[in-house]
Amino acid sequence: MVKLQIITSDDWPLWQEIRVAALTEAPHAFRSRLADWHRGGQEQWRARLAIPGSYNVVALRGSLPVGMVRGIPGDGETSELRSLWVSPEARGDGVGDRLIEAVTTWALRSDSTTLKLAVIPGNEPAIALYQRHGFVATEEPGDLLPGGVTREQVLAKRLR
């Protein structure tokens, strides 16, 4: 049984544990690199979780973290889904679906009309998951990836 837990900046050790696991297991899936997170210490981890209006969720199987996602408020009409990751042992169990649904519900409660995200091009399992939840590619240019050649692919879905 997987339980979703909303976390705050006080829960930074749990967030650190799962984020390090995500960046270690799937470095190809994130713009951030593990090395980026070893410099800032506790304050960097706390700050990530303390963004005003953010929604930070960890999926737990017992006490073991098996997934994570963030919702970040945008411009008032658009919110962002970020940092989605599910551990290999929990993939295929609907954890990713539940995490996306949790952020979608949060965005709706926040009166957002659009939920957007960025994905690394070629991450077909993630793209398929997002498409199942109604996300479609946009013309918006994503952030430049390390190396300076490729950009993230931006997907969005209308909420209202």
Automatic annotation (TrEMBL):
Keyword Transcription regulation among record annotations? no
The record's listing under InterPro entries reads:
Acyl_CoA_acyltransferase, Bact_Acetyltransf, GNAT_dom
Where does the N-acetyltransferase domain start and stop, copy by copy? 2-160
* Entry keyword set: Acyltransferase, Transferase
Is-annotated flag, keyword Transferase?
yes
Name of the protein: GNAT family N-acetyltransferase
Q: Read off the lineage from the record.
A: Bacteria, Bacillati, Actinomycetota, Actinomycetes, Kitasatosporales
